[in-house]
Design brief:
Blueprint lengths: L4 E6 L3 H12 L4 E7 L2 H11 L3 E5 L6 H12 L4 E6 L4 H10 L3 E4 L4 H12 L4 E2 L1 H39 E10 L5 E10 L8 H9 L3 H15 L7 E5 L2 H6 L2 H5 L5 E5 L8 H13 L3 E7 L3 H10 L3 E4 L1 H4 L6 H16 L3 E4 L5 H9 L4 E2 L16
Parallel strand pairs: 1-2, 1-3, 3-4, 4-5, 5-6, 8-9, 9-10, 10-11, 11-12, 12-13, 13-14
Antiparallel strand pairs: 7-8, 7-14
Length: about 375
């Protein structure tokens, strides 16, 4: 006769524990080696007795089934774990199976089902109550459907990004002017996608980030801006790039022969290694390429960018310049930033200038340069690159 299956029972309910014990004793192929009332007692007995199977109540005290399941695997690695509970919800089942349980039966299962479950997990097979099995199958089907939708969505994003880089990417140029006489000092290159009327490019860049294609899309945008650029006397070209793209080194050759450029780093771009970024920017600055910190005033990150990267230009965020003529707090913050910029010899550009009242207030603050719909809208030129 083969060795009997050595079983430990763990349940805080005395009557349930006694009933389980009687069922196990009724099977001549099983041997009841002990019983426990909480997780700590279960772990102590499992370590001492090294049972073949432990029948574990999911909701017993002192950590219940989850603690017992994890602990049993540590103190008695060869023991198989059969969870037993009135709680058959999906999350409970999947959590215990994830932690290493080998089966899950719902309380109310017949003695025959319990003994069959003990034999199944001892033999290395899974044991699930029919209702639990249906639940698991349903959960797996939902997970598969969700994964399939996610994969299809990812393919769609990749296709849109590929199409953009192969011909759906346009460049709009918005002038940056001197406020005193509105002379154009430079242009910011702004990526646009699809066909007019263009919508915000942010979703496309978000898709690129989620697909791991930020560098490729930003590189394509900069390349398109340089190709579409037309000489304007003394006017510089500014474009946004992320630290990730700068770190890649892909821009170096592209920018090598271009002149009068400004690289903008947004306040929203996370920088985890300022020393590394400064070292990447150093050779660009040595070639005359200037650095601007965009969105200044929108948060604390831009101030840290300024302190750590020593930019040539500071661009005040439109949230600061909008209604600056009537908002005292915005006005006070702008005064502080302008004063700070003068102290470190950095020029200030006000973004989002949309009316004459704002323009007057900005000039009174001593801000020399501005950008916004009042001063010139972004335009995709007729001579844009294909």
């Amino acid at each position: 006769m083969s060795a009997r299956i050595r079983v430990l029972v763990a349940d805080d309910d005395t009557e349930v524990r006694a009933a389980l014990s009687d069922i196990i004793r009724s099977d001549m192929s099983c041997e009841l080696v002990g019983s426990a009332a909480d997780a700590s007692e279960t772990l102590a007995l499992a370590g001492d007795l090294q049972p073949d199977v432990v029948v574990v109540d999911v909701k017993m005290p002192d950590g219940g089934g989850p603690r017992a399941t994890v602990g049993i695997r540590q103190v008695s690695p060869g023991t198989r774990i059969l969870c037993f509970s009135a709680y058959g919800d999906r999350d409970t089942v999947f959590e215990l199976l994830r932690l290493g349980a080998h089966g899950f039966l719902v309380k109310g299962s017949s003695p025959t089902e319990l003994l069959a479950g003990i034999h199944d997990v001892h033999a290395g097979r899974s044991a699930l109550s029919p209702s639990v099995a249906r639940d698991v199958v349903g959960r797996l089907a939902e997970d598969l459907e969700r994964d399939t939708r996610a994969e299809a969505d990812k393919r769609g994003r990749l296709k849109r990004i590929q199409n953009a880089m192969e011909g759906g990417l346009h460049v709009a140029f918005q002038p940056i002017v001197r406020l005193t006489d509105r002379r154009v000092m430079g242009f910011e290159a702004l990526a646009r996608f699809g066909e007019p009327p263009f919508v915000s490019p942010e979703p496309m860049f978000n898709d690129a980030a989620s697909a791991g294609l930020t560098i490729e899309l930003e590189f394509a945008a900069v390349k398109a801006a340089l190709s579409a650029r037309r000489p304007v006397p003394d006017a510089y070209l500014a474009f946004n790039v992320s630290p990730e793209t700068l770190f890649s080194g892909r821009l170096d050759a592209l920018l090598e022969k271009a002149s009068n450029l400004v690289v903008e780093i947004t306040e929203h771009a996370p920088v985890t290694d300022y020393a590394r970024l400064a070292s990447v920017l150093h050779p660009l600055k040595a070639r005359g390429i200037r650095l601007a910190i965009d969105d200044t005033g929108a948060g604390f990150a831009s101030l840290r960018h300024i302190l750590m990267l020593e930019p040539d230009l500071i661009k005040l965020d439109r949230s600061l310049t909008s209604a600056i003529d009537s908002n005292q707090r915005q006005h006070a913050l702008a005064v502080a930033l302008v004063s700070f910029a003068r102290e470190i010899s950095v020029d200030v550009i006000a973004e989002g200038v949309e009316n004459e009242f704002e323009l007057t207030a900005l000039k009174q603050l001593g801000i020399e340069y501005g950008q916004g719909y009042l001063l010139g809208r972004p335009e995709v030129p007729a001579w844009k690159a294909a």
